[in-house]
Amino acid sequence: MIRLKDTKHASTADFLTSAIRIAEYYGFTPLDEMRTMRLNEADRKRTATKNETEINYARREERPLTVAARRCASCVRSSPEGFLAWRTVPGTSGMPSTSFELHVVGTQSAIAEALLLVVANAIAEEAGVKERKLSINNIGSFESSNRFVRDVGSYLRKHIETISPTLRPRAAEDPLGTLVQLIERGHPAAPRAPQAMEYLTEDERRKFWDFLEYLEVFGLAYELSPQVLGSRDCWSHSLYEISTTDEESGGNITIAFGGRYDPLASRFAVNHTPAATISINCEIRGKTRVKRDVRGVPGMYFAHLGPEARRRVLVVLEMLRREEIPVHQSLLFDKIGEQMAQAKRLATPYILIMGYKEAMENTILVREVSTNSQEAVPLDELPGYLKRHRVGMWQIGSKV
């Protein structure tokens, strides 16, 4: 949990105001304001049958996610192309706190997890949280992790005498949840337990590398940690947490946790629903009422073409955010045609375009829609170029 005395924020409201401003720059919108659609009777009965099974929670942070997953499942029916959303909920720590959640729904691409970590890192950095450590694990799909869970169960049986009597019954029914508890308690057997990443298939390893490559291109440092785990009823594939050093105790405290929660989102939806999240926890102190910024809409759209360009999108967006230059983007779209159609709907007078050639040369095309003229601009000169030519500044009269 983020302690405000370790940040530059005087109150919870200050922290949330800053977090919302950063999230909404990247295109996140309030989840509670999104339009939902009810299931028809046949689909309602089908999902009700799936939901009769009790969910096994391995971490306390997982319980609030159920409500968000249900809400996101209802929103995706009205937004089948996917969406980015944020919400605030009461925290799950022992002391009064609030959690700022970010959700990316509707894409299997690793850009979802990468975007969440980039935004969460920006929020923590702007708050003044120092010495941040990003830890990442991958538990694979439900099928590929079966061997992992089986071997965890065997490992726990060998060490059952060292486990607390109150936890022993759970070891037989929920080996993974038991291992999470042992990790949280600092049990000496936990570090030697089987590691989920060793059980990934080749295809899952390639997808995991795609995720890590986004972070490496962005320059976000991370470490692989087999001890970042969660319930398989909630999570699949990537899991991550951000921690910082507790100046009083000298130990680490977790300030954010999340991952890909396809199993939980799909439980409440008619079809398979890909979804990823991160939750940043902050203590409650002082004012809590948040005032959101009211701005115009960006006059510029950022389109990418190909995987190389897509890996560099987050670098460019963060550079523009730091320079307070607004821009639309559609990271959930893979095809350039979808993005150009979106730019047309938004009627932006300028479009930034990055393809393979531009990604390799560290340049970007700035196109004026009215004349269809364009100019290649080096990335490190882009903010200055846009400001000098007043390209894509806020268009007055609309609200973000």
How would you describe what is shown here?
- Helix content is 37%, strand content 19%.
- With 400 residues, it is α/β, with parallel strands linked by helices.
- It folds into two domains: 225 residues, BirA Bifunctional Protein, domain 2, CATH 3.30.930; 89 residues, Rossmann fold, CATH 3.40.50.
- It has an eight-stranded mixed sheet, sandwiched between helices. Strands 10-9-11-12-13 form a five-stranded mixed sheet.
- Helix 1 runs antiparallel to helix 4 and helix 8 packs parallel to helix 10.
- The longest helix is centred in the N-terminal third of the chain and has 17 residues.
- The C terminus is likely disordered.
List the helices and strands and how they pair.
Layout: H1 12-25, E1 29-30, H2 41-50, H3 63-76, E2 83-90, E3 97-105, H4 111-127, E4 133-138, H5 146-158, H6 168-173, H7 175-185, H8 202-218, E5 223-224, E6 238-245, E7 252-260, H9 262-267, E8 275-283, E9 300-304, H10 307-322, E10 328-329, H11 336-346, E11 350-354, H12 356-361, E12 363-368, E13 373-378, H13 382-388
Parallel strand pairs: 1-2, 4-5, 9-10, 9-11
Antiparallel strand pairs: 2-3, 3-8, 4-6, 6-7, 7-8, 11-12, 12-13
Helix pairs in contact: 1-4, 4-8, 4-10, 8-10
